[in-house]
Amino acid sequence: MDRKHIFSKIGGLAITLGGGVAMAFGPDTFPDLAPIATYGGIALVVFGIILSFIFFAKTSEKSAREVIPMGDSYHNSGVNYGIVGPVNNYGPQKLTFDQNIASEILKLMPNKKTVILKTIGGRSDQDVGNQYHEFLVSNGFEVQRSILGGLNPPPDNKISFGESENSYTITIAPST
After folding, report:
1. pTM, two decimal places
2. Neighbours of 147 (CB within 10 A)
3. Confidence label for 118 from pLDDT (cuts 50, 70 and 90)
4. Total domain count for the chain?
5. For residue 153, cis peptide bond before it (omega within 30 degrees of 0)
6. Rounded CA separation 51/41 (Å)
7. Residue 170 pLDDT > 50, yes or no?
8. How far is CA 134 from CA 61, 120, 127, 145, in A?
9. Does the residue 43 lie in any domain?
10. What are the strands of the beta sheet with 143-148, ordered from one edge?
C-alpha cells in the first residue's frame, strides 16, 4: 500500500472517530446544538467510512489482471492460460467416424442380420455412434441402438465386433 492509501485509511478512521465523539459528547456539552452535533456526528461517521473504504480502496495490480492458474495439466486440452507453446495431448486419441473402418465392418457382415449397436461414452462419443448408425442403416441393416454412459470394466478396444445366430453386435467406445 502506498502513502496515499495509508493516509486515506488513517484520515477515514480519524473522521469516523471524530464523528463518534461528536455524537457521544456534543449533545451533553452543547445542549443548544444537540441536533446539529448528533446529525453532524452521523455524517462524519458515514463520510469517514466512505473515505477509507470506497473512494480510496485499492485493488492490487495483480488482481486487476487476468488470474493465471498454476501451470498446465493433463486435462488441459486447448486453453493455455497464457502459457506460450502448443498443448501436446499424449496417449490414445479419440475414435472418429472413418469410412475405411465402416467398410471393414461391412465386410464382416455378409448376411443382412439385425445389428445391435452399443455406443459407450458421453455426448461426443454418442455422436460418433450416430454416424456409424446412419452408415449401417444406409447400407440396408436394421439397427437396434443401445446408448451407454459407461461400462465397467471398460472395453479393451474402441470398436469390437461379435456375431450370433440372429444378429451382429458392434460396440463402439470412442474414448477408450
Report:
1. 0.50
2. 13
3. very high
4. 2
5. yes
6. 15
7. yes
8. 55, 17, 11, 11
9. yes
10. 143-148, 114-120, 167-172, 159-163
